Amino acid sequence: MLRKMNPIVVAFIFSEAFFWSAWNFISPIISVFVVATLPDGNVRTAAFGFTLYLLVRVISELVVSNYMVFLSDKKRMVTDVCGMILLTMSYLIIAFIPNLITFYIFFIIAGMSFAISSPAKLSMFSLNMGRAQASRTWGMYHAIIYTGMGIATALGGVIADSFGFKTLFIIASIVNIIGIVPYWVYNSKHKDHKHFYEEN
User: Fold this and answer.
1) Domain range for residue 108?
2) Closest CA to 123 of 176, 70, 84, 83
3) How would you classify residue 140: left for phi > 0, otherwise alpha for psi between -120 and 50, otherwise beta?
4) 49: closest CA among 22, 27, 79, 78?
5) What would the pLDDT profile of 166-178 be if each residue is shown by its tens digit?
6) What does the pLDDT look like over 145-195, one tens digit per residue?
7) Number of C-alpha atoms within 13 angstroms, CB side, residue 50?
8) Could you tell me if residue 5 is inside a domain?
9) Which of 63, 78, 166, 173 is packed most tightly, with the most Cβ within 10 A?
């Protein structure tokens, strides 16, 4: 199945697998982190942090998406990579400086990171999947992404319980940055490519 897909789509799917796996190390248990480790942290604080992330993401993404229209796929990749690097930095900030201020900073940066990455990579994905393969491509995408997310969620709980939240955030940052590798492999093998929006 993957061999029949446009290589840029395959690179995108594997990059997304690392990206979302890293996020799911943390997002399901962020409330536990707040309550268990942060002074004056509680469930309300955790909920407000996630709301802050969503607000920042929505506002930022509306702005960023206006600049994605005329970008080449290579520039979309670079934009996605910039968002992933920014998200990696947010994981490391909360890992090494765990307090309420950095908790909110983490979610603000995360919102900006998703806002930068999402319009770039999703537009690249949609332009290159090909109409005839759209349903199978989306099926493969969800199968790989949700498998990674499920495994990451379970492992995240084990890692946090056994080694602590700092270790968990550091591992998430490493997994997230590995998501750049599929793009690097693609660019090293395919110097030029065209959109597959129209079937050959």
Assistant:
1) 24-188
2) 70
3) alpha
4) 27
5) 999 999 999 999 9
6) 999 999 999 999 999 999 999 999 999 999 999 999 998 888 887 665 544
7) 14
8) no
9) 173
**Is residue 15 a part of any domain in this protein?**
no
Cβ contacts of 115 within 8 Å, gap of 6 or more: 56, 57, 58, 59, 60, 61, 63, 64, 83
**Residue 143 in domain:** yes
Burial annotation 68-78 (CB, 10 A radius, 16+ → b, else e):
beebebbebbe
The identity of residue 65, as a single letter, is S
Q: Is the pLDDT of residue 26 over 50?
A: yes
Structure tokens at 188: 């090293």
Instruction: Give the domain CATH number at 96.
Output: 1.20.1250.20
CA 32 to chain centre: 21
Tally of domains in the chain: 1
